[in-house]
Every structure is written in structure tokens, then in C-alpha cells.
Design a protein that fits this description.
The structure is a single chain. With about 350 residues, the protein is mainly beta. It has helices at about 30, 95-100, 270-275, 340-345; strands at about 5-15, 30-35, 40-50, 65-75, 105-110, 120-125, 135-145, 150-165, 175-180, 185-190, 215, 220-230, 230-235, 245-255, 255-260, 280-285, 295-315, 315-325, 335. The chain is globular.
């Protein structure tokens, strides 16, 4: 009896494409990424049913239709461990997925050896750039128990959307939902996938002492904070393309945020005022430890509150705050590194 493939031995990698849908050669030693165990590439084949009438109740043979693929995953969100160097090689392993979700990365190199460099991610739009939003190729190897062979799945021309979550006592997390071009799964008899030295080896940080602020108020007791890009992904059906699909584009964005906080007296901080007036406010959080190389800043500078919902957490009154962000490709800023520089402070 043949040995089964083991999902625990699954390796993922991704790389930005220079030409949409073309294989950029994803080297596992350079582009491996650490994602959670339920991640996977799912080939999707539509089926064309034939409904012609005949003398029998039996159906006609169906034929394969449009072919696409998807990739969904959760992952730890952390720096590369050298983010404060601010160079091209100091981006985290999730960099290709972040760019393929419509974020742009600005790298500011450190001054000498001062560790004051940083990498800033912000949204971008098609019309404002000389080139379209980046796409990426994603690869997955599911290893066998007793051999170097693996099941190999690929997704080309992938773009998508993502969301971030910070929950007290946990670690920063990000979820991705990507769509791309179908590639037929195949066996891989090579051994290159068994060397996953490309992972970021630094540890993620614990969610504590974040200095999370809401409308400049820093006195909240915050259970959780998160936000979603909510990109709209649109396919381009095409009779001239293999699989009848030319590719996928990000065509819209409607970012939202959410927080769960302990309730306060209105005299201390009037949460309902933001709902009634529609005023613009900022939400920020800093994930920080003793190393500037591992620090992450989250900033939503232009938010409006949609709703404040009262709740109960074990007898403690809470509010679930939900809202939207607006701006000109500046409604979200994620900065990795530069915990001691004025430049990073200004970037927030």
C-alpha cells in the first residue's frame, strides 16, 4: 500500500510576477512563507451541463467549463526580523501576497547602522500608478510520508484581499483570500521543496502593551482590534484564453475596521458622538518589544464610526465598534521597523 501525503509536511511559497500569469520561478529557499495548516490552493473547474431533450430521462454527458483557482490562508503577521534596516531584502515572507492585495511598499533604508529604517505598506490604485497592481504566483507542495515526492499545486496571476486582527494575549494575524489562473496539479519528484530555509525565523510578538488609541484617546481597555481591505476581485472571462479566463483584477476597495472595548461613561469618552456626527477620527496600535527590527505600527488615520453595539463579556459591559475608512490611497498604513526614528512616527 502506498504511503499517503501528509498535510503537516506542506510547504508554501510565493513570488511577485513581472508578467501577469507567467511563472516567475518560485525558489523555495528564497520565497517560502509560513502559513497555517488549513491553507491550500483549490483548483476550480466549472461544469457545463447539457440540457437537450431526448427520448430518455438520462442526462447528457457534461463537459468541463471555465477553469480558475483560489488560495485561502491565515498566517502570523510579523516582520522579517531585519525590518529596521529598510532594504529590499528586509521585507517579510508575506510580501508578495500583501502587494497582490493592492498594497504598495515604500522602503526607507537605515541611516548608517542606526536601525532607523522602515517599510511602509499603503493601498494603491490602478489609475494612480504607471503599472497595474502586482500579481503573484503561489505554489504548494504536500509531502509524502516516506519519500521526497510531493503533490504540487500552483496558482498564477493571483490577486486578492486581506484582513488583520489583533486579539489580547494572542499574536498578530493576517488572512488572505486570493483568486488566480488554474494550473493542473501534478506530482513533483524533486527535493527542492524539502529545504524551506526561506522562512522568517524570528518569533511573532505577543499582543500586549499596544498603546492602542481611538480618536487620540489612549485610556481604552481593548479586547481586540482588526481591519479588512475588502477588495473586490473581478474575473475577466475570455474566449481567447486557456481555461476561458484572462485573469483577475482588483476593481474596488471598501475597507472597514472593528474594535471590542470595555464600555466607558460618556463623560470619559463619548463613543456615540462619533456615530451621531460622522466625524473623522484615527485608530492606531503599536506592536512592540525590545527590538526595533520586530516592531509593527498599524494606523487608520481617516475613520468614521458606523455603529457602537453594547455587549456583555462575562459580566463586564463592552462596546463593539465598527466603521469605515476613506482617503486617497492613504487610509491604511502598516509600518514595520523604525521604532526609534522620527521618520516612523511621522509615517504613522
Amino acid at each position: 500500500m502506498a504511503a499517503p501525503p501528509l498535510t503537516k509536511r506542506t510547504v508554501h511559497a510565493s513570488r511577485i510576477e513581472t508578467t501577469y500569469g507567467s511563472d516567475p520561478t518560485v525558489d523555495i529557499t528564497s520565497y517560502a512563507m509560513l502559513v497555517n495548516s488549513d491553507a491550500g490552493i483549490t483548483p476550480k473547474k466549472e461544469v457545463v451541463e447539457r440540457t437537450g431533450q431526448r427520448s430518455t430521462l438520462s442526462p447528457l454527458r457534461a463537459i468541463p467549463g471555465m477553469a480558475t483557482g483560489a488560495f485561502d490562508c491565515d498566517a502570523e503577521f510579523k516582520t522579517s526580523g531585519t525590518a529596521a534596516d529598510g532594504g529590499a531584502t528586509d521585507v517579510c515572507n508575506l510580501y508578495p501576497l500583501l502587494l497582490a492585495c493592492g498594497l504598495d511598499a515604500t522602503r526607507t533604508a537605515e541611516t548608517g547602522t542606526d536601525n532607523d529604517g522602515f517599510i511602509c505598506y499603503q493601498p494603491r490604485s490602478l489609475a494612480a500608478e504607471a503599472t497595474p497592481i502586482n500579481s503573484c504566483s503561489i505554489e504548494q507542495w504536500i509531502g509524502m510520508e516516506t519519500a521526497t515526492s510531493s503533490l504540487h499545486r500552483q496558482l498564477r496571476g493571483a490577486v486578492g484581499t486581506c484582513g488583520f486582527s489583533l486579539e489580547a494575549g494572542s499574536i498578530p494575524k493576517v488572512n488572505f483570500s486570493m483568486q488566480g489562473l488554474y494550473t493542473k496539479p501534478a506530482d513533483d519528484a524533486g527535493t527542492n521543496w524539502t529545504t524551506d530555509a526561506g522562512y522568517d525565523t524570528n518569533l511573532p510578538q505577543k499582543i500586549q502593551s499596544l498603546a492602542c488609541t481611538f480618536d487620540t484617546y489612549a485610556g481604552l481597555t481593548v479586547r481586540s482590534f482588526g481591519f479588512e481591505l475588502n477588495n473586490v476581485i473581478t474575473g475577466r472571462p475570455d474566449i481567447n484564453s486557456s481555461g476561458s479566463m484572462a485573469g483577475f483584477f482588483i476593481t474596488d476597495r471598501a475597507p472597514t475596521f472593528n474594535m471590542v472595548v470595555e464600555a466607558l461613561l460618556a463623560a470619559t469618552k463619548d463613543m456615540w458622538d462619533a456615530v451621531d456626527t460622522g466625524a473623522t477620527l484615527a485608530v492606531t496600535a503599536i506592536v512592540s518589544n525590545s527590538s526595533v527590527q520586530d516592531r509593527i505600527y498599524f494606523s487608520l488615520p481617516t475613520c468614521t464610526v458606523s455603529d457602537v453595539t453594547p455587549g456583555n463579556d462575562g459580566g463586564i459591559a463592552t462596546y463593539t465598534i465598527t466603521g469605515k475608512m476613506y482617503g486617497d490611497d492613504d487610509e491604511i498604513r502598516i509600518v514595520q521597523g523604525a521604532g526609534t526614528s522620527a521618520g516612523a512616527t511621522n509615517d504613522i
